[in-house]
Amino acid sequence: MYNVISRIIKQRFTILIIMLCLFTSCTRYIKIPEKFQFVDDSSFKSQVELYDGYAIVLFYNAQYWQSRDMETRFHYFADKYYGKARFLKFPWIVENDASNYNLEMLPTIVLYFKGAQIDRIKGIPPEKIDRLTFNEDIDLWFMKNILKLHGTEFDGNFVYLFNNTHILHIRNN
Predict the structure, then answer these.
(1) β pairing state of 54-60 and 108-113
(2) For the segment 34-61, what is each residue's pLDDT rounded down to a tens digit?
(3) Rounded to whole angstroms, how far apart are CA atoms 24 and 5?
């Protein structure tokens, strides 16, 4: 009886290994779409300004914790709203001229529709307690501006006061 059970387990294990090998070899040929793309000065026009839909661009610099924090949130929303908008990441070099994109601080998320700027979110709340609900605020912003959901449950006007005198406004009404 033990030999029969042992043989069945070995057969099933062998089949599982073969299936796993086939799957991993096939995945090389399967193109999995990216939830977000990278953009820079040279590709901004074609990827954002000429795009016939919603494009959301995260301007960030990964050497700062605020940008890394926002990048994590950006990935979450790129997954959540995949197919509703084009999500693009613009790695920003601090020494570059920010006037072309009207950047005042990093990170900044800018929402474009058919190449025209609709709205932007500048920075993130400095206090950890405020960042706990920040995703919900950004989610409302997405629901109102991209999904065009209407009603008071989707309206919001959020103001975050920063220690360095910056004020972050998020509004979707």
Answers:
(1) antiparallel
(2) 678 999 999 999 999 999 999 999 999 9
(3) 29
| Residue 27 sits in the same domain as residue 43 | no
Q: Clarify whether residues 148 and 76 are in a common domain.
A: yes
- pTM value is 0.69
Do the beta carbons of residue 154 and residue 123 sit within 8 Å?
no
Counting the structural domains of the chain, the total is 2
Q: How far is the C-alpha of 124 from the C-alpha of 161, rounded, in Å?
A: 10
Domain of 27, in residue numbers = 1-32
Q: What per-residue string of b and e applies to 95-114 under the rule 16 or more CB within 10 Å gives b?
A: eeeeeebebeebbbbbbbbe
Task: Kindly state whether residues 18 and 64 are assigned to the same domain.
Answer: no
Of 58, 73, 169, the residue nearest 112 (C-alpha)? 58
Q: Residue 120 to residues 75, 82, 105, 171: CA-CA distances in angstroms?
A: 17, 19, 11, 9
| Cα distance between residue 74 and residue 148, in whole Å | 19
37 half-sphere exposure, CB direction, 13 A CA radius: 14
